[in-house]
């Protein structure tokens, strides 16, 4: 496995790989890898000749009062895990390498960013699209892999790829969970012991809400009532929307999503399902 830190070296690897007729699968990450990331590598390996993983804590997607500086980082650990999973290349650039000058052109996530996490994180998904678009171009990936835990991000990226005819396909990866149901996340390390015991209740509440939605009842109130008095974190939102359109009117798939702010960690989770049944 190689670790590449410069765009020039990455381009040379891509040229060599494409020249040999190999396909490229891209797994974009911000590092501090967990089983969810590894599951995406496994999926990429099964569908491509070579797998490149990006490890880059993207400053463009963090607001001024968010956790960019304290986001967990451990490149040596990530290198070991990525190599064990069969990753061919890690692309781990600096912020200066990715953004050598202030961008004159911006990408807007549009109305898809006005709900869920985007409603309280203005500019966040614009920053996500900025780095993802660059990674798509730099790696010339045939397929890119994203987890469904970040479902709004996934919907926005899928929309960009479709709207602007990016020459690659997006592959969804199922949310990987702890044995107690908590969605794997790099930010879980911020939870206190008491909060860690509470965190699995989010998924339990969503399951109850899903059943309520299928039965024609209000899932939002069911989720909120279940969590009331059971968790110390503050509920940011609970919403039922269509997926991937993220609209109030639901046809086909729906997403029931939640965000909860604990003392040092903001957890998100969701279920994607058909309201008329699984």
UniProtKB/TrEMBL annotation:
Binding site for beta-alanine: 61
GO molecular function, one term: ATP binding
GO biological process: pantothenate biosynthetic process
Enzyme class: ligase
Subcellular location(s) of the protein: Cytoplasm
CC annotations in GO: cytosol
Sites where the protein binds ATP: 30-37, 147-150, 176, 184-187
Residues annotated as the enzyme's active site: 37 (proton donor)
Gene3D superfamilies per the UniProt record, alphabetical: HUPs, Pantoate-beta-alanine ligase, C-terminal domain
Pathway in which the depicted protein is active: Cofactor biosynthesis; (R)-pantothenate biosynthesis; (R)-pantothenate from (R)-pantoate and beta-alanine: step 1/1
Catalytic activity: (R)-pantoate + beta-alanine + ATP = (R)-pantothenate + AMP + diphosphate + H(+)
Binding of (R)-pantoate, residues: 61, 153
Top-level taxonomic group: Bacteria
EC number: 6.3.2.1
Range of residues in the leader sequence: none
InterPro entries noted in UniProt: Cyt_trans-like, Pantoate_ligase, Pantoate_ligase_C, Rossmann-like_a/b/a_fold
Keywords: ATP-binding, Cytoplasm, Ligase, Nucleotide-binding, Pantothenate biosynthesis
Other remarks on this protein: The reaction proceeds by a bi uni uni bi ping pong mechanism.
Subunit text: Homodimer.
NCBIfam families per UniProt: cyt_tran_rel, panC
Function as written in the Swiss-Prot or TrEMBL entry: Catalyzes the condensation of pantoate with beta-alanine in an ATP-dependent reaction via a pantoyl-adenylate intermediate.
Family: Belongs to the pantothenate synthetase family.
Stated name of the protein: Pantothenate synthetase
Organism (species): Planococcus glaciei
